[in-house]
């Protein structure tokens, strides 16, 4: 059975990746073409020409105004995916239409709806408002992962691995040594995992970016919206410096770490990462440092998860893992995602429709 949750919005790209060039990306096993109309809005449709299946994201396919012209024999499609011209005849076959996808641009991301289009209105687009909000500066990127999305979910839900896999970057002994609390909001389908360290080493990631010298208060508050949006609310401050009673926190440094976990296929994943901070907003040096550091950390995870995927792919089903307290958040996430996948699977067509006669 598929592990991919359908009837769900997924991050397909950053807005900056899509312009007046054809752009293709596989999302949840579906090859999708993205481009911007002349008015700047993003459109998404199947990346396979209905004629002989040539990818419309491959050169010499190209845009002409608000149409895309197939680079093989010239079938031409409008922004809704409807074929408006074919070579050698004036009559365009009625069924010549690409599947189009609901798409929303929000919080610097381009989101695409994978599932039954008529359900897209009833499923909210997840939010990560810091990424283009005033008062924050964001660095971001995307790394391809040759591993299934569930391995990245596991990885992000249990940050004790920072101590071992990311020592010298974001890991210190206190991360692995401090117990977590886990809460699940079943109605809202959100998993919360918190780890509050009151007196911890300051790893280079925060020492260099904040300028704090000495030990810190370090709070990690995870908010995971299964299946695909992970938010880490991170607060650091010198030891003893806490938020005020009214909730204001002028002396704390706040970093919102966002991961959008988008399956490419059953066994590969687009790992979108972003780091938004509320300090040193204009400091390019801090931006460069955080971008480089976080990318290095993400690549450490990529190497580990790619290795895990090779292990899992070579093993028979049914291996019994051993889980401990640190895994409670990851296990809750797995349970919710499995239920979401089972619910969505009931509506999966036998093969994704490319042609539609609507
Ligand atoms: S494959 Fe696109 S026009 Fe022939
Ligand atoms: Fe990691």
TrEMBL record:
Residues 9-112 form the Rieske domain. Keywords: 2Fe-2S, Dioxygenase, Iron, Iron-sulfur, Metal-binding, Oxidoreductase. The keyword Protease does not apply. It holds the Pfam family Rieske. GO terms for molecular function: dioxygenase activity. PANTHER family: 3-KETOSTEROID-9-ALPHA-MONOOXYGENASE, OXYGENASE COMPONENT, IRON-SULFUR DOMAIN CONTAINING PROTEIN. This is Aromatic ring-hydroxylating dioxygenase subunit alpha. It comes from Klenkia sesuvii.
């Amino acid at each position: 059975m598929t592990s991919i949750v359908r009837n769900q919005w997924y991050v397909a790209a950053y807005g900056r990746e899509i312009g007046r060039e054809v752009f293709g990306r596989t999302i949840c096993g579906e090859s999708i073409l993205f481009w911007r109309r002349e008015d700047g809005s993003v459109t998404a449709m199947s990346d396979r020409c209905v004629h002989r299946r040539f990818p419309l994201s491959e050169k010499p396919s190209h845009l002409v105004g608000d149409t895309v012209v197939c680079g093989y024999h010239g079938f031409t499609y409008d922004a809704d995916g409807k074929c408006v011209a074919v070579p050698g005849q004036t009559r365009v076959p009625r069924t010549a239409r690409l599947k189009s996808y609901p798409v929303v641009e929000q919080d610097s991301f381009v989101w695409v709806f994978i599932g039954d289009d008529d359900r897209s209105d009833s499923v909210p687009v997840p939010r990560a408002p810091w990424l283009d909000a005033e008062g924050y500066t964001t660095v971001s990127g995307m790394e391809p992962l040759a591993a299934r999305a569930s391995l990245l979910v596991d990885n992000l839900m249990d940050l004790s691995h920072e101590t071992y896999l990311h020592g010298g970057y974001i890991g210190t002994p206190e991360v692995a040594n401090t117990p977590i609390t886990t809460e699940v909001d079943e109605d809202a389908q959100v998993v919360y995992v918190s780890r509050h360290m009151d007196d911890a080493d300051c790893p280079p990631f925060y020492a260099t970016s904040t300028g704090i010298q000495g030990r810190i208060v370090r709070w990690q508050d995870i908010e995971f919206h299964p299946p695909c949006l992970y938010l880490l609310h991170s607060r650091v401050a010198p030891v003893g410096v806490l938020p005020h009673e009214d909730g204001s926190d002028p002396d704390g440094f706040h970093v919102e770490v966002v991961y959008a976990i988008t399956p490419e296929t059953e066994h590969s994943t687009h790992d979108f990462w972003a780091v938004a901070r509320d300090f040193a907003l204009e400091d390019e040096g801090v931006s460069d440092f955080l971008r480089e550091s976080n990318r290095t950390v993400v690549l450490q995870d990529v190497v580990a998860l790619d290795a895990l995927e090779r292990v899992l792919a070579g093993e028979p089903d049914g291996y019994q893992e051993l889980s401990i307290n640190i895994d409670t958040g990851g296990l809750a996430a797995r349970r919710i995602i499995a239920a979401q996948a089972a619910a969505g699977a009931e509506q999966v067509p036998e093969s994704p429709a490319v042609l539609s006669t609507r």
